[in-house]
Every structure is written in structure tokens, then in C-alpha cells.
Amino acid sequence: MPRVKTVPQEVVQQVSEYFSILSEPMRLRLLNLLREGEKCVQELVEATETSQANVSKHLKVMLQAGILSRRTEGTSAYYKVEDELIFDLCNLVCDRLATRIEQQARHFRNFTG
Questions:
Q1: Domain spanning 1-82: which CATH class is it, in words?
Q2: Dist CA 10 CA 58 (whole Å)
Q3: Is residue 86 packed enough to be buried (19+ CB in 10 Å), middle (13-18) or exposed (0-12)?
Q4: Which residue, 27, 66, 96, 104, shows the most beta carbons closer than 10 Å to its own?
Q5: What digits encode the pLDDT tens for the residues 8-52?
Q6: Helix, strand, coil percentages for the chain (3-state, nearest 5)
């Protein structure tokens, strides 16, 4: 009988925390805005039409996770994506969802046709 390989609880916890970062819609919106390059907090606040406190809270979470980096210039804070792999992960999920939606559309067409 093959031996089941167990993953240490600490590893599972870290992976879970990484995925939980992407479970918040506002963080995904911010990442999408930062896909184009570095932006200051005020630009992100205007683009998301939410409060600076809300934007800053989500940026801090992604900064602490190593997904973003931050620099200051005068009184402005600028953020950019440090871990480009995050976009590969998002693209995989989006491609999977698009495939499912296309399959559902075919089922609807077959039902109505």
C-alpha cells in the first residue's frame, strides 16, 4: 500500500493565508490596477471610488505578504507588484472560469435550440 505523504500543518497554514489574500474583491481590484505599473495611494483611491483608509488597509495586507512593494516620495506612498507570479495565478483562475461560462452557454443554447 503506498504511503500517503503528509504536509506539515505550518505549510498548509501558509498556503491558506496566501490564498486568503486573493479572496477579497477589493484586493483583486487593486492588483488589477497595479498590473499596469506603480501607482500612488491617491490614484488607487480615485480609481476604486472608496476611502483612503480602506485602500491602505488592503495594500498593507498585500505588502506584508510580499506581493507588493512600497516607496515614499514626499508625502505620497507608491505601490507596485513585487511578485509577478500573482498575475499568473489570477490568469489561471480567470481562464478556468471563462471555460466554465462558455460550457454553460453551450448547454443553454442546446436547451433552447
A1: mainly alpha
A2: 24
A3: buried
A4: 27
A5: 999 999 989 989 999 999 999 999 999 999 999 999 999 999 999
A6: 65, 10, 25
